[in-house]
Amino acid sequence: MDTYDLLVIGGGPGGYACAIKAAKASMRVAIFEKESFGGTCLNVGCIPTKYLLDKASGLEKIRMLTEAGIYKDAGMFNFKEIQRQKTKVVEKLVGGVNGLLKHHNVAVFKGEAILKADKVVECNGKRYTANHIVIATGSRPAMISIPGVEHAITSTDLLAIPSIPKRLTVIGGGVIGLELSSAFNSFGSKVTVIEMMDSLLPKEQPQAGTQLKKTLEKNGLTFHLSARVNRIEKRDGVCRTIFTVGDKEGSIESELVLIAVGRKPNTDCITPDSKIVLTDSKQVKVDRYLQTSVDGVYAIGDVIGGYQLAHAAYAEAESVVDTILAKDTKAPYDDSVMPRCVYTIPAFAAVGKTTEQAGVETVVGTFSYEANGMALAEEAKGSVYVIMDKQHRITVGVQIVGEHAPELISLATAAVAKKFTFNDWKHLVIAHPSLSEMVKEAALDAFKSALHKV
Asked: What is the per-residue pLDDT across 60-91, written as a single tens digit (0 to 9) for each?
């Protein structure tokens, strides 16, 4: 039986990051992956979705410039070519991860790994062991139990389709549902979103969710909120989705029905003999150091729930490796300042707490894209909201609806993490013209001190 310092099960963002970081610290590391390195994010999630959204956003920009008389026509686009080049980008990034693992002398084993008793991992008939094991097996699309669900597709299926559907029904108004709805709406599909909650982004600042919904509706999306899907019927190649809102039943016809109701953890690798405890939601249960019920066995990424984000998995990997290497004091994992993004057109991004979550009296500063020189030059629209602790004048949270929101949120993340005060914002010099100026202006507006706002 081969022995290593660290065994990593799963080659997604958390898994490969963990393996590389440990190898760079001179640990002998092996990683197991049954499909492609990069996991959901790189292969059938973040990267291919963002590629589609980038091209869809480009189409929207061209249409807007055409309407303004700057371009003569909006032109045509080739979806098959978009799909082909999307695949090339994914393959390049997957190749990059493989190259990094090889460069850092991480032993790679392709195949399904099973965690057994006494920290033993079995793969392809061989057994391996280590003092430390990390479970990073990710997640897969969750499905709903309704009649006719076999007629629906998952996000993985939708990302691989060869042509644009005339009509698309999306069940689920969360991150995945909204992003794909936004992309295919821009590509020309008539998109309808059915969501069980009564609002979009229910855990975020209410103004932001309301603004995003209004903007997406203006762009052409249709929403049915507080809705329960009853069944899906299919006849002559057309799907009919029947749903209920209150006591009224409605239905929508479309060529495709996407189910985007979240993701479920991949725990098939865990045997009862391993003594790993799962939560009621079938996620791996971990403590504040991300250690499971078995000493020396950790879990990170989607398989533990929480923020199912690639950058969260990267942070968890960093924390676990630090814990393994720590000789004395160990620092618990902290995700209280985690940026959250929805790459719709326009996008949404947030970090920190909302006014409801803050636990202190707050004031909210706002700033519109329409008052920013760079936003006007780019013809970008949106708003920035900065939540401040009223008494101590400390930055509590930031929410942005508008173009480039995911890029702007990094500045806000630093501000929330470092507890930026009103005076910190006041004396911070930001390049002009830039969209980043809006974050500072919104923070100052919380105390009626924004320069470019009445």
From this structure: 999 999 999 999 888 789 999 999 999 999 99
What are the chain's domains? 2-141+264-326 (3.50.50.60), 144-260 (3.50.50.60), 346-446 (3.30.390.30)
Summary mean pLDDT of the chain:
97
End-to-end Cα, the chain, rounded Å: 72
- Whole-model pTM: value is 0.96
pLDDT of res. 73? 86
- The pLDDT, as a whole number, for residue 74 is 83
Task: For 233-270, write each residue's pLDDT tens digit.
Answer: 999 999 999 999 999 999 999 999 999 999 999 999 99
- Mean pLDDT, range 198-213, rounded to an integer: 97
* Alpha-carbon gap, residue 274 to 133, rounded angstroms: 12
Angle between helices 79-103 and 13-24 (to 10 degrees): 30
**Contact 136/304 with Cβ under 8 angstroms?**
no
Q: What does DSSP say about strands 126-135 and 120-123: parallel, antiparallel, or unpaired?
A: antiparallel
103, 311, 432, 452: the catalytic one is 432
pLDDT tier at 328, thresholds 50, 70, 90:
confident
Active-site annotation holds for 103? no
Q: How far apart are CA 275 and CA 341, in angstroms?
A: 35
